């Protein structure tokens, strides 16, 4: 019988103080070193640092790169923490055997991307006037290779930290899935509260971020590995280079812009529909159902 995803935390050196120190090290790399690197890059490429806030509102490939630089250091912090502080293999954040199941990764990415794209097409058919065609080939084609590299780094880093490192660490305190999913949803929501989308309706958009964290935690625990969540998150963010909103935290020169996002309550409704469809595809079609263990 294969080792459960939560039992991976028992590998290597797993004293709770190491997790507390590990979180501090990861946050230091992400926030402090990442911010310094971002400012240095901006000063080198753009120039005057006083223009930073204004520049971050522009939709350009340079801005996209700037907003993703700190995630590279976030990833480095996670790697150093797991490899040297806990003395276990980095990919044990993905699975007990420290390997990536690319089939499950592609199922996660493909299913979520297909679901979101289908919902977007339905929205376009129902309200075509709400979509603004803004395709600029020269800008978009330059953005594409950077997005294909940087977006998976950004989303994978978040998944490795929230659904990997934190869930495994918290399992040393409790292994009850509902508690782990709830705490993980809260922790995932908090750093997303400064996102500009929150202005649509703070309570409902915050609830969406919470629900996204809970859902990715659920599929991780259900699948007993991280690949589905890695695929979901990457597909979710990559879709923004095709269709995005004008208040998105990812200011990219997308192909289409949604003019009005509508009532934020619908964000939760549609997310529940999307999650249910994904569950059917990932666990009802591609794999026999497994049950969460509640101990």
From TrEMBL:
Residues 140-239 form the CAAX prenyl protease 2/Lysostaphin resistance protein A-like domain. The keyword Transmembrane applies. Keywords: Hydrolase, Membrane, Protease, Transmembrane, Transmembrane helix. The keyword Nuclease does not apply. GO terms for molecular function: endopeptidase activity. GO terms for biological process: CAAX-box protein maturation; proteolysis. It comes from the Bacteria. The chain crosses the membrane at residues 20-44, 64-85, 105-126, 138-157, 178-195, 201-221, 228-245, 265-285. This is CAAX protease. It comes from Mastigocoleus testarum BC008.
């Amino acid at each position: 019988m294969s080792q459960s995803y939560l039992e991976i935390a028992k590998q290597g050196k797993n004293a709770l103080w190491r997790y507390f120190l590990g979180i501090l090290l990861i946050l230091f790399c992400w926030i402090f070193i990442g911010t310094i690197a971002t400012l240095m890059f901006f000063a080198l490429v753009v120039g005057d640092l006083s223009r930073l806030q204004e520049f971050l509102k522009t939709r350009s490939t340079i801005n996209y790169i700037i907003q993703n630089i700190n995630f590279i250091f976030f990833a480095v912090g996670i790697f150093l923490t797991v490899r040297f502080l806990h003395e276990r293999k980095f990919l044990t954040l993905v699975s007990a055997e420290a390997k990536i199941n690319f089939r499950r990764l592609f199922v996660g990415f493909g299913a979520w991307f297909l679901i979101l794209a289908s919902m977007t097409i339905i929205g376009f058919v129902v309200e075509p006037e709400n979509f603004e065609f803004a395709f600029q080939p020269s800008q978009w084609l330059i953005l594409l290779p950077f997005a294909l590299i940087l977006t998976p780094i950004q989303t994978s880093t978040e998944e490795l930290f929230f659904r990997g490192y934190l869930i495994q660490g918290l399992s040393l305190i409790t292994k009850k899935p509902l508690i782990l999913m709830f705490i993980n949803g809260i922790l995932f929501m908090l750093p997303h509260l400064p996102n500009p989308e929150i202005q649509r309706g703070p309570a409902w958009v915050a609830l969406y971020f919470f629900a996204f964290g809970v859902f990715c935690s659920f599929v991780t625990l259900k699948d007993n590995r991280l690949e589905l969540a890695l695929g979901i998150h990457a597909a979710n963010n990559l879709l923004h280079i095709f269709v995005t909103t004008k208040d998105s935290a990812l200011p990219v020169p997308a192909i289409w812009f949604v003019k009005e996002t509508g009532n934020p309550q619908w964000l939760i409704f549609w997310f529940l529909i999307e999650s249910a469809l994904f569950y059917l595809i990932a666990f009802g079609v591609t794999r026999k159902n497994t049950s969460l263990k509640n101990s």
